[in-house]
Amino acid sequence: MTHGSQNAWVHGGLLLVGDAAHAGRADGQGANIAFEDAAVLGALVRQNGLGHKAFAAWEEVRQPRVRDILWDPKPDGATRSALIQNSAFEQLWCPLRVAAALPAGVRQEVQEAVARGGVEAGRQVVINWSQRAIRELVEAKAPIASGSNLALDPHYRFWPELLLGVSVR
Ligand SMILES: Cc1cc2nc3c(=O)[nH]c(=O)nc-3n(C[C@H](O)[C@H](O)[C@H](O)COP(=O)(O)OP(=O)(O)OC[C@H]3O[C@@H](n4cnc5c(N)ncnc54)[C@H](O)[C@@H]3O)c2cc1C
Q1: In testing the pocket of ligand 1, which one of 15, 25, 29 has its CB within 8 Å of the most ligand atoms?
Q2: Which of 7, 25, 44, 82 has the greatest CB tally within 10 Å of its CB?
Q3: Are residues 14 and 82 in the same domain?
Q4: What is the pLDDT of residues 64-112, one digit of tens each?
Q5: If you write DSSP's letter for every residue of the chain in order, what string do you get?
């Protein structure tokens, strides 16, 4: 990978993503980072249009994160672990825009939460909804005995909002 330098991943109208831009060791993050690349790129293209502005912004936000996850300078991997745990997706979506595509009841709940407690409160309603929805899907595929204590990892979430209008930073 050539990283840390401007235009390392952007060549005119050509953009490298995933392993093509930053193949690393096969240690469990390459695919995750490739998915992130796609999500962040989609957000920036929606914001800036398809072209150099979006590509340059993408390279700027992605290079430090990818570098520190794939090539953590700390021997114990502390930088990398913190970055993986602290996904940056929250910055990419606005709960009110997401709510427009959600069921009416949830939409109203989000709007009320934002009015009462601001964007973070609205985000939490969307996250709770996404966790309920994914649980229902999982249970429908693999019925779980009633009363089960199945606890979904809080990091499992739907991100339909990434398909919608979003803002970065
Ligand atoms: C053994 C191993 C274990 C791994 N384990 C994990 C893991 O647990 N978790 C994790 O997150 N990551 C893991 N990775 C890394 C992960 O697989 C990659 O980072 C990820 O697949 C990169 O996705 P990509 O879409 O960028 O590239 P790829 O998945 O390589 O996709 C590129 C695609 O382009 C196709 N292609 C190539 N050349 C051409 C061409 N000329 N024309 C048309 N198509 C072409 C290829 O056939 C391929 O389908 C592992 C990798 C390896 C090798």
Answers
A1: 29
A2: 44
A3: yes
A4: 889 988 888 788 888 888 888 776 566 667 889 888 888 999 999 999 9
A5: ---SSTTSSEETTEE--THHHH---SSS-HHHHHHHHHHHHHHHHHHH-SSHHHHHHHHHHHHHHHHHHHT-SSTT-HHHHHHHHS-GGGGG--HHHHHTTS-HHHHHHHHHHHHHH-HHHHHHHHHHHHHHHHHHHHHHHS---TT------TT----GGGGS-----
